[in-house]
From TrEMBL:
Classification via Gene3D superfamilies: 3.40.50.880
Pfam families registered for this protein in UniProt: ThuA
Name of this protein: ThuA-like domain-containing protein
ThuA-like domain residues: 5-212
PANTHER family in UniProt: GALACTOSE-BINDING DOMAIN-LIKE SUPERFAMILY PROTEIN, SECRETED GLYCOSYL HYDROLASE
Stored InterPro entries: Class_I_gatase-like, ThuA-like
Organism whose genome encodes this protein: Inquilinus ginsengisoli
Coiled-coil residues: none
Length: 216
């Protein structure tokens, strides 16, 4: 049975959601997925959502109808995988706490905007991070409100150069979790489509997508 993935893109265009959706679709098709791409949150209300193997939201900010939230969270609870990155997943639908409960985090700031920072791998034994070493990254360093139930795979520490009161504080960058029977994966890396050229970012997301996807 061919596994099916749904990518839903939209919201703030500064995150190049359509271009990112095309890249993610290509990655999944190379892995044998049948990929569907939609550009409206109405896709989350489709009763067939529960039959998908993976859902990838790439939809910064914006809003979602209650029935769309309910159907999406119910699909994941039933076993459909959810995976995403940066603001496309964890700065989406800010008013929907049920959505945030599912994803495990919500963006609140990126002090300094585009800066250089260090990503530390915390779980080298995990298949998503296997073979990866700590690496330097240039992008928005996300400061987030995060769920303590997340299994953190990578983290970063703030210098305080752009917000002195958070100097020395450590923040998760990559995590995975369960929501009901569904697997949920998130990476804060990937501000714009150009960041897919970073091999570490691309590898982490690619592996995370495959980990989250429900088995056929």
């Amino acid at each position: 049975m061919t596994r099916q993935a749904l990518i839903v893109w939209g919201g703030w265009n500064g995150h190049t959601p359509q271009e990112c959706a095309d890249v993610v679709a290509g990655m999944l098709r190379d892995d044998g997925f049948e990929v569907f791409i939609e550009d409206t949150t109405e896709a989350f209300a489709d009763p067939g959502l529960k039959d998908m193997h993976l859902i990838v939201p790439i939809y910064t900010m914006s809003t979602m109808e209650k029935e769309e939230v309910t159907n999406l969270t119910s699909a994941v609870e039933s076993g459909v995988g959810l995976a995403g990155f940066h603001g496309g997943m964890c700065d989406a639908f800010r008013n929907e706490v049920a959505y945030q409960f599912m994803t495990g985090g919500q963006w609140v700031s990126h002090p300094g905007n585009i800066i250089d920072y260090r990503v530390r791998v915390t779980r080298r034994d995990d298949p998503v991070m296997q073979g990866l070493e700590d690496f330097d990254y240039r992008s928005e360093q996300y400061y987030m409100h995060v769920d303590p139930n997340n299994e953190v795979l990578a983290e970063t520490t703030f210098t305080g150069d752009h917000a002195a009161w958070i100097a020395g504080h450590t923040m998760p960058v990559v995590w995975k979790r369960k929501h009901g029977a569904g697997r949920v994966f998130y990476s804060a890396l990937g501000h714009r489509v150009e960041e897919f050229e970073n091999q570490a970012m691309r590898t982490i997301l690619h592996r995370g997508l495959l980990w989250a996807a429900r088995e056929a």
